[in-house]
Amino acid sequence: MALAASGGPASGNFAEIIQELNVMLSINAGPFALALTHLLLLIALVTATLIEARFVRRVHAKKTAVFSLFILGVVAARIAFVLTYFTQYSDAPWKALDIRDGGFLVWPGIAAAILGGLLIGWRHPEQRRALAFSMTAGLAIWLLGGWLLSSYQQGAPLPQTTLRTLHGEPVSVAEYRGKPVVINLWATWCPPCRREMPVLRDMQLEREDIVFVFVNQAESAQAVSDYLSRQQLVLSNSFLDPEGEFAREVGSAALPTTLFYSSDGHLTGSHMGEMSRASLTHYLDSQTGARSAVSGTSSHRD
Asked: With bands split at pLDDT 50, 70 and 90, how would you rate the model's confidence at 68?
């Protein structure tokens, strides 16, 4: 979820303060990594569930509904996404069931959950107060938290960390300012990275108006070259981050991580985890908003 702040003087000052902070996109919890957006959703759900449980105990109701409404919202958000991008699933319709790509449309999901809550409240008057307070609290935490998180993450400039080409030459992604930039952090040992690579490769070939950059994490040039050769993957802008400094600068704690930057070099969105063609198309349409070619220097480098 990404909520844009207004462009007044106060929000401008707030954005400048936020950009002074180190951006963090995900956190580690032992062997697991969790995107901050997912953590926020979990906090909102737990809060709503606890509030509902408190009200239910007071009125001695027998049923709770918040979790069911959450599932309803998730399903509706997924269905809305699949219907919007159904052409992307035509070759493999079963992939519409794979929600790991993060393909959801937020507002249809919220609308479905609210309508479901209204229906339950109409049929079970004793649950109205519990649903009203719990859903209001959960949505408030999620929407307000989403706005704050968006303000915290978005607007960060293109990273300044120097990368290396597969031939050992230094390079900076800042040189691609002038076009929208998509940066994918990956590794050859990462299964979801390997699965999504053909999707990113194909999109790089199709969308010449956008610069795609592939930043391998802490592997040798030989290992990366051998892997790309075995998989018959030809990628432009394939670079190395030998010490993981680039990942630390952008705040990524897990792979794969994909970052979206505007043509003026500021972060507009991020995604942790595997991307499908549909979810990548959604991000490009909603985050970069760029479909026409932009004149400038070549955006490809070996």
From this structure: very high
Q: Do 196 and 233 form a contact (C-beta atoms < 8 A)? A: no
pTM over 0.85: no
Strand-pair category, 32-35 with 163-165: unpaired
CA max distance for the chain = 70
Q: What is the domain-level CATH number for residue 238?
A: 3.40.30.10
Predicted pLDDT of residue 56: 84
Per-residue pLDDT of 122-168, as tens digits, reads 999 988 999 999 999 999 999 999 999 888 777 889 999 999 999 99
Place of tokens 């991000």: 283
Helix locations, the chain, DSSP H: 9-19, 36-59, 66-84, 106-123, 128-153, 191-206, 221-230, 245-250, 277-283
Examine the pLDDT at 24 and tell me if it is beyond 60: yes
Q: Which of 110, 135, 153 is the last residue of a domain?
A: 153
In a domain, 2, yes or no: no
What is the token pair recorded at 210? 């956008």
According to DSSP, the β-strands at 181-186 and 26-29 are: unpaired
Are residues 96 and 43 part of one domain?
A: yes
Hey, is 215 helix, strand or coil?
Answer: strand
- 28 within 8 A of 253, measured Cβ to Cβ: yes
